[in-house]
Amino acid sequence: MAKFVPDVTTNRWVIIAEGRSKRPKEAKAASNVNKICVFCPGFEKIPGTEVYRIPQGEPYSPGWQVRVVTNKYPITDFHEVIIHSPDDVKDFDRLSVEQVHKILTAFRDRFNFHTKNGYVMIFNNVGEVAGASINHPHSQLVVVPKQITLDSLSIEPVVNPVFETDHFVVHCPDFSQWPFEVWLSPKKRGEYFGQIAPEALADLAQVLPNTLRRLIKHLLGGEHFHPGMPMVAFKDGPAYNFYIYHDKDWYIRIIPRLVHRAGFELGTGLSVNIVDPADAAEILKEETEG
Ligand SMILES: [Zn+2]
After folding, report:
1. Distance of CA 1 from the midpoint of ligand 1 (Å)
2. Ligand 1 centroid vs 23 CA: distance in angstroms?
3. C-alpha span between 94 and 81 (Å, rounded)
4. Spacing, Cα 168 to ligand 1 middle (Å)
5. What is the average pLDDT value for the chain, to the nearest integer?
6. What DSSP letter does each residue of 166-203 carry, written as one string?
7. Confidence of residue 176 (pLDDT cuts 50, 70, 90)
8. CA 217, CA 228: separation in Å to the nearest integer?
9. 76-106 pLDDT, tens per residue?
């Protein structure tokens, strides 16, 4: 089981989770046609315990549209995998709004189920450099005991807007630690993610894919570089993380993985962002939803 180790002077923690090293790694090439995917329909019995599905139905059988199973290689006592859809390839940017709505409904329901157990972190890793080990689109939920201090950002002021809807502002905060970092901030503040109203959840089902499409369209292929802008682009397909802030005054933070952290940053804890967030916002504003 995982061990939590504190650093006495900074009050930061590490989690030692040796079991994680046993998780299977898929080949980098998605073209490996003979592989079986344990998240695809037909293999329901192979991953962990099924805890949730949309629509309701016989556990471990096909017919699901979103499925949640326990992670066989957990970081903490509560670690779940949310399988986005039966489709092995399509993710948020290419799934229907209805399907994205179902995934977000699963996020909300599992968040609320686990709040009694600790801080609920929901996050998504896309691409090998972002830490994804299985290609089938999925997100994860990890519960961290409340006695552990987390080193997370509170919601940032809304500046450099990209676009807004009835319920959200999409923006690039001045305090962006990564190039093309984008935040989705609800207009209704002071809530936990689990308290999101149905109308806002429906809105988010459009806002999140819209934002990801803008990022992917701009950063993939590297065709549209702007004068005076550093060259940053996805090298091997989209690579990004996003997470839903676990605490009150929630937000979603999307971090494209375009750069590696180097010695200076590791040694100082200071981030060097090579793209001005104001420029990133202007570029993403122009990027039509493709
Ligand atoms: Zn699959």
Report:
1. 28
2. 16
3. 20
4. 32
5. 91
6. SSEEEE--SS--STT-EEEEESS-S--GGG--HHHHHH
7. very high
8. 20
9. 999 999 999 999 999 999 999 999 999 999 9
Residue 214, classed as helix, strand or coil, is helix
Residue range 197-224, pLDDT digits in tens:
999 999 999 999 999 999 999 898 665 5
Dist CA 131 CA 65 (whole Å): 25
Does position 50 have pLDDT exceeding 70, yes or no? yes
- Residue 85 CA to ligand 1 center (angstroms) comes to 9
- CATH number belonging to domain 161-286: 3.30.428.10
| Distance (Å, whole) CA 43 – CA 197 | 34
Tell me which of 8-12, 168-172, 187-191, 199-203 is least confident.
8-12
In the chain, what are the domain boundaries?
3-22+32-144, 161-286
CATH class of 3-22+32-144: alpha beta
Is residue 27 pLDDT above 50, yes or no?
no
| 3-state secondary structure at position 141 | strand
d(CA 81, CA 122): 10
List residues with catalytic annotation.
138
Ligand 1 center from residue 150 Cα (angstroms): 33
Asked if 252 and 208 touch (Cβ cutoff 8 Å), the reply is: yes
Residue 137: exposure state from Cβ atoms within 10 A (0-12, 13-18, ≥19): buried
This model's pTM is above 0.85 = yes
CB 214 within 8 Å of CB 157: no
For residue 204, the one-letter residue type is L
Percent of the chain with pLDDT over 90: 74
Identical fold between 3-22+32-144 and 161-286: yes
